[in-house]
Amino acid sequence: MNVGKHSALIFVYILLCMQISYAQIVDFSQVFTNYVYLNPSFVGSTSCPNVYSSFRTRNLSEKSYNSAYVSFDVELNEKFGSVGASLLQDFQSDVFKETEFMAIYAKTFQIRRYLYMNASLAAGYVYGATDYSNLIYSDMLNVFGEGFLATGEDMERIVRHNFNTEMGILLYNDNFFAGVSIKNLQGNITEENKKCNFFPRIFSFHSLGRFSTTKAYTQQYRIWFYPHVNLVVSNVSSYAQLGLVLQKWMVQAGGGYRQNFSKNANSFTFFVGVVQKKFRFAYSCDVTRNTTRKIDTHEVSLGYQFDCREKKKKFEAVKAPTI
To answer: Domain span at residue 140?
Structure first.
């Protein structure tokens, strides 16, 4: 398959995601393949132009909660840093819709010979709409007849236009990274400002390592291991994710565990992917405990890395490991 066909395939896939999904707050299952969403400091980390897209659906058997995400990032040079952009669209039925566009800038600093730090800042626009007229409240139920009663709840349609910001710090070498990101820097939702402030402030502490079973002279037997952890803290929902992905040649497989702290709920994630020099494709599903729906979340992702520009590099070729 030539480059033209590759590009056409990616374009069709992105259009499909954008048509399926319109708006929502998102927790992606494939958090360590969606590295720009995880931490904006990953922008430019591959040195080459890179595009990533994913689609996630939850509660597939009911009115599903869908998310589509697309990001593009590229390293300019060591002096000017890296830039990127992302688009998030998602919705839940005809009740909640959201669209978010973010522009991202990241800069690399050398700490030691093989140790680097990326610092980033992202800013963008969020459009959100919540239509309460499509909900059914308990006081609307007519136990003595058919139809619904009038409700005392607020049934208005609320539209929000928000300026959003986030930041990240990433410390890495060729075999590990550790980082922290803060989404919705201006956020801190209260009862008084919930109609004008869209999302709560979210902290993410994350790390990933990479190691293999054998040395370079036995490449045919080599298996790569990618253990990873992600801790998310906010005043709405906090949870921990632990996982491990194994790679043999171009095939990846693994799983993870997620524990919510605010309530007794947990889930397991199963992951399979295919990695080539330029292409990455992955599928994952979540098996949720404490509910009657067992496999209720599915996610697919596709990434493509364009050819790098020939240039002189100030830093040595050290890249943060990614799945």
So the answer is: 3-305
